[in-house]
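QA checklist item 7 of 12: single-chain prediction sanity check.
[x] sequence parsed
[x] length recorded as 628
[x] structure emitted
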Amino acid sequence: MSRVLGSFGCKRFIKLGFAFLIVMFLSPRLRAQQDKGSVSGTVTDQQSALISKVKVIVTNQATGLVYPTDTTDAGTYRVPLEAGRYSVEFTKNGFETHKVGSIDVRSGKDTTVDMELRVGVVSSQVFVTAPGMDLDKSSPTVRINIPGKSIDEIPMPSSTLVPAGSRNMSRFALFAPGIARVLFQNDTSANGHRGRENNFMIDGTDNNDQSVTLPALLVPPEAIQEMDVQASTFSAEYGRNLGAQINVITRSGTNSYNGQLWEFYRGNALEPFALADQRAGLTSKPRLVDHQFGGTFGGPIIKNKTFVFGMVQGNLLRTGPRASSTATIPTPTAYAPLLTAPRRSGQSEASRAAVLEYLSFLPDVHSGVNNYTAYSIPSVNGTPVEMGTFSSVIPTHQNIWYGSVKLDHQFAPTDRLTFRSHVDRRNSPLNAGNLAFGERWAVDSKYFGQNHFIGYTKTLNTSFVNESRVGYTRLDPSFVERDPVTPTIILTNLFQIGVPRTYPQERREQTWQFQNVSTYLFSKHSLKFGADLARTNLFQNSAQDVRGTWTFLSMQDFMNNQANSLVFLASTPTRYTFNQWRQAYFVQDDYKLRRNLTVNLGLRYELSAVPLGGSGATTDEVLNAFVP
């Protein structure tokens, strides 16, 4: 079954997908943009009669771009828009022109602006306000839209999700109803779901780390236009995960040149002298220098037509040696007696010599230990051995660079092209591994993430808008071992020799995505129809226990070379590649029965194929045994 789904099924679904795309481009009855909001409403006269063919002109106040449309025979209209601030003008012969001067449009949200026109001449212009625009009157979605200015100005802590010192925009999801904080990496849980069941997007395109279901890239606050968090009852155009839909809309350039510079500094002058550092034998606060700095610039390349926005941010962290992890080892007093401790019955001299060879690093460690916090005196074949617990001290050196650029070009009021590119590069030496003995068995963490997309929006007429998008995400995380040779030796509740058993680790994850989402408005219906096709390729090197992992229950067992267990990776290869296709199709109809009553009807079909090669199967014999 897995074999069939992984090969023949994928080919069949790909053909269906291409057939669907042809229908998408030929059909005139479609709608929806995940990264866009919209302005919609009903236009009536003073007797509440519906007015058709009213010219509705929506203007972006920052860029000057104009989005015209007409009301339908039922007096309704809808205009898909980027998040931002707009004005709306209503014009029809025989009626006064009415204008709403300022409307904030949020991504993924329908802003309702109903208008009552008075009989008069077109040259008479009336400026009005539209009360209740902040209320979502056409959708049951439980959500919150957080403006980028709020994200930029509210102090943001770091978390386990991001490197030390980074400002974590994902924490703002906790403001949404139904979102609670959970332990470990992802911080947020929607309606009781696991913290790793959320769907992360940038401008409506995929931003998920497919392996560990976390955000692939974290966008700095200064590059965010707004953040849309949908906790539940979202429309059929959203899916992939059962948890929250978290969509970050990035900033675009405007008709005015603008930019900013920033520097966040944290130093040891105002830091407390941590108890862990004191127990490690430090006599003063360790050095701490943490700089997070950057800048943005945006503006017009061609006014009212082409715009650019870019940013760069650096995060440089340096610390002096500070408390890291603890270990319980033979003290300098016990090391010499340990060398001459009697062997167990039947133990060869070569066996004891091999054991002592693995302890030969201890004198170097002793010279750097200033304080032992606990002592014990176990016996090794009748010889008392003094054991002491100490805290290791190591420095921190971290470099993180983040950059992005976004280009928007409007060929005509009906055609718009957008390109965005984000890169995230991190280098964190001594970031993981066995840090109890300094650099000896440490692991350096390296990370390079990319997220790019290009989108084209076409307005065919006042009732039909289509947007196509192509996205590409690539992640290259790796962990470089300082010592890739020494086996992993665990002395239970005492100390460990060698790099932890879970290394080496490296992977290269690539996701290609195509989306087509459209809008078609007719009568009282706002019809939505779309497709989302994605292919993920993952190269993985995960060789747990490749050097062998020996576990000893006590110091005496280790000296006697009597392991409680030995785990060794016997199968090959440790490097494998798998591919997976994902596809989703949806249709939704927002039917406006009355001005104050909207019925939402939606259907979504989603399928994730078997990740062929996910279990390392490479030969026909294994594949024919239904191993993916």
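[x] summary fact logged: The mean pLDDT is 84.
[ ] second reviewer sign-off
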